[in-house]
Amino acid sequence: MKxxxxxxxxxxxxxxxxxxxxxxxxxxxxxxACEALEQxxxxxxxxxxQEAEIRKVKxxxxxxxxxxxxxxxxxxxxxxxxxxxxxxGEEDKKFQKDVLSYKAIAEYESxxxxxxxxxxxxxxxxxxxxxxxxxxxxxALQLDQYDVAKSNFDRAVEEDDSYAMFLxxxxxxxxxxxxxxxxxxxxQALAGDSSSGQDHYQRGRIYYFMGxxxxxxxxxxxxxxxxxxxxxxxxxxxYLEQQDPASARAMYQEYAQQGGAGAKAYNGLALCDMAExxxxxxxxxxxxxxxxxxxxxxxxxxxNEVVAxxxxxxxxxxxxxxxxxxxxxxxxxxxxxxxxFLQTR
Length: 345
What we know:
By secondary structure, this protein is mostly helical. 80% of the residues lie in helices and 0% in strands. It has 19 helices and no strands. The chain has helices spanning 2-38, 42-54, 59-72, 76-89, 93-109, 113-124, 130-142, 146-159, 163-175, 179-189, 197-209, 213-225, 231-241, 245-257, 262-275, 279-291, 296-311, 315-328, 333-343. α3 (59-72) runs antiparallel to α4 (76-89), α5 packs parallel to α7 and α15 (262-275) runs antiparallel to α16. The protein is globular, with a radius of gyration of 25 Å. The protein starts with a helix and ends with a helix.
């Protein structure tokens, strides 16, 4: 009888351990998916969130995560579908506002302007913020409602007068070939004083986008002196624009030596190689960069890999690479044009 009790106790402990392990596995699927999403590994994130949803772990949050992953992978219809599911499963106002913000972006990117507008109007019920007004401005611009767009952009900078917001608005106008309207916002951003390395960095970026390289260089060098490592990336771009790959290479090497993101440094070095017609060297740097890359860095490196093979006149490999690239990033219009060009070679 005593042995039987001991056996039952052991079985109970085993079952408890198994249930605990199962719960840990459920939770880990979600946590690992969140980590993969943060690191830009969107396919792994998608699988993790799918497993979490099946196991009923943070279901609405997992659906939100799948929406973001699909959006990053360029499938905006799938993204919208999962954002809608997430909204149905969680009533918290903060969560709803967050998901609606993502949903509006996915609808916008898929060309569903009226749906994106409706999502933004819904966000207003929870309290419109700078990003909401910015999104409304983007939608109005796509609908050729220029006065409405400007009104919303003005509201956006009233709520958030950061350099990032001014740059975002400039880039939206640039996509519509309305550079003059965009540069008006950049001029507003430059009206304030610069008092820190970060200020000098942001002002340098703005001058760069305005095509004012001397002022950009001055600001970015000040930023570099004050420890803003990212400034070296833009200095590298400026030197390349000025056809000075040696100085650009020095900037990218300094950036890497000071602990900058390896992928960005390798990408910059590859661009220097191509400027010097060293295409094999460019491909070596791209390969090393891909080993350290995630998210948008992967996309840029893969595109530059196509260009390097094209310049090397290895058109067969370039065609294969651009086909693989477009499978991964089907909405990249520049890559679509590149593919059409390579078909004639």
